[in-house]
Amino acid sequence: MKKLLLTAFLSTIFILSITAQNSLNSGDFVGGSWGAGQSMSSSVGGSLIITKSVSTSGDKYFRFYGDGTPCGEYQPNANGDPFTHSVTVTTPNGNCGGANAWKVNLPTASSNVVFKTDGLNTGISKSIAFVIQGTIQTVSSVAQVPTSGAGVYANQAVTVTATLSGSFATGQAVYLRYSTNSFSTSTVVAMTGSGTTYTGTIPAQAGGTTVQYYVFTSGSGTVGGSDGPLANGTDADFRTINLNNSGGSNYSYTVTAGNVFYWVGGTAPSNAFNDKSNWSNIGVGGSAIGASGANITFTTSDILIMDGSNVGSGATGPVSVAVPSSSSTVYGQWILRNNVTFKITGGGLTELLL
Length: 354
Known about the structure:
By secondary structure, the chain is mostly beta strands. It has three helices and 26 strands. A hairpin with a 7-residue loop joins β5 and β6.
């Protein structure tokens, strides 16, 4: 009798140990069986994650194990209560027991389902299921333009490009999350693109601002909608399937004070030197800031760049830019590169600071 009691006691300890955190209970997915907890792994922000595949399409049933506080196993209020794809379920611990099960529909036999919970052992407050109709992709690399090395100035938005491990299957999407205060607050935007290349934009920021950002994948939905991450990023960790955050340090850049302008007016502009049609804030070869007839008021903190590879339209050797006589006062910190020079062709340019 003592031996049997000891065996039962050890068995109880073993069961509690394998369900000491949230785990999945289901026999409807590949590699799983009812009554055996399928351990969830640590994910972003303390959340937990498990990915399961199927051999057939259709409705699949499951429950969650916990640590016994308040439930050792959680069931829905009614058998077959559904998990809608990418929509948070906020009461998965509504009942203790194993009589009922939730269901999630997998439209194809090649689908994968990513289950996530908030990782709370004292009752699962919320959980979610992302159904991906094919291979789950990751973010292989992240790049930005302008680069940190080239400098990001106060009048420049930054384009972030994410390169994926493969093309998305239906059900997965990629998002950009950025912050100007070390993620005390943040903003999430959906990235757009096709194939393996997607882009998102961080708006221009004030000089001296440090911007941190990373890229993550989640279910395909609308930012701010019930099936997508919140625009303020407060549920981004919970909704993350995978991410690229530069190995945990996040990507970042600091905005240089002042604006930057790139000359796109050619070698003999017909308009005033400070006309918006002659300048771009994007980069060499970028589109003009505005149409002809509107002028820019430069300041001494602005950076004005003339690049011979752009203004000379591919010409070799020194390129000379003729400053038209209709120009007004021009201030700025000038950068001349790739064999570009300029000459004043009239008396209209009253002051030029170099």
